[in-house]
TrEMBL record:
Cross-referenced Pfam families: ABC2_membrane_4
Name of the protein: Lantibiotic ABC transporter permease
Superkingdom of the source species: Bacteria
Signal peptide stretch: none
Membrane-spanning intervals of the chain: 21-42, 54-75, 102-125, 131-153, 165-185, 244-263
Keyword field: Membrane, Transmembrane, Transmembrane helix
Length: 274
């Protein structure tokens, strides 16, 4: 009997996603979001650096909803394909679940990277890309890292409560994420670095806010050096990042361990025939 390993399970998950609409959704949404925002901001009369900051804030703010949709669709497909036999019927459910989350998260990273690259194209054509490539990469990785907890949370919701509840909470999460920075394009209109300027407060403990916060701070740490008092601003950005990073790591690790323990005893009561 072939031994079940992480590599084999991940490869199996990738094969089963081959040709899935999820891959097309990630690629199309990533490119469309980047090109649309890039074209708009390239023609808009705002500060290019703040435009880039606003783009990553918006991209991160919609991560709770996008993650919820992707995870809900994936689990719904698993149910339709045989009552989740590919997840619950394997020798190690924990490995199967970990592989599924990893592959979906990597697709998320791909979509975010495509969005960032697509955004750069029209901005660079008009000479409006002020942030260095290193800042763009840091913002992209920050959004992806901050969204891992959302994948774990959405997976638990989709398994236990189904598609509609998962997506509804994703909508709520995006609203909370937007509010955490004072609203869409707040920094762009107020000419401030709203990622660091808005006081984290209780929002640092809310997972929905982490993708937009880390994405914004990734850009703002570069923009701060071009502003008066740049070193002080950059120090504040570091403190804000740490204030959010600690709860992010604690929640993600705790939720990940809890989910892996729970899946071993999970019994699906939401059958397709119900």
């Amino acid at each position: 009997m072939t031994r079940m390993t992480v590599g084999r399970v991940v490869a199996s998950e990738i094969v089963r996603l081959h040709g899935s609409v999820l891959i097309a959704i990630h690629v199309i949404c990533g490119l469309a979001a980047g090109l649309a925002c890039g074209a708009y901001f390239a023609a808009a009369p705002y500060d290019p650096g703040l435009e880039t900051d606003a783009f990553f804030q918006v991209l991160g703010a919609f991560m709770p909803l996008m993650v919820a949709i992707v995870v809900a669709m994936n689990i719904e497909t698993e149910r339709e394909a045989g009552d989740m036999a590919n997840l619950l019927g394997v020798p190690s459910r924990r490995l199967g679940l970990a592989a599924k989350i990893l592959v979906l998260w990597l697709l998320d990273l791909l979509a975010l990277a495509l969005a960032a690259l697509a955004f750069c194209l029209p901005m660079a054509m008009v000479g409006g890309l002020d942030a260095p490539i290193s800042a763009l990469a840091l913002a992209t990785l920050g959004m992806a890292g901050g969204s891992l907890c959302l994948y774990l949370f959405s997976m638990a919701l989709a398994l236990r409560f189904g598609r509609n509840t998962t997506i509804a909470i994703g909508v709520l999460g995006t609203g909370i994420s937007i509010s955490s920075l004072g609203g869409l394009f707040n920094g762009l209109y107020s000419h401030t670095l709203s990622g660091v300027g808005s006081t984290p407060g209780i929002t640092r403990w809310i997972p929905f806010t982490w993708p937009t916060r880390f994405g914004s701070l990734g850009i703002e740490q570069a923009l701060a050096l071009t502003m008066p008092g740049g070193e002080g601003l950059r120090a504040s950005i570091g403190v804000t990042a740490l204030d959010n990073l600690i709860p992010c790591l604690v929640f993600t690790l705790t939720l990940g361990l809890a989910l892996l323990l729970w899946i071993g005893r999970f019994e699906d009561r939401r059958k397709v025939s119900d």
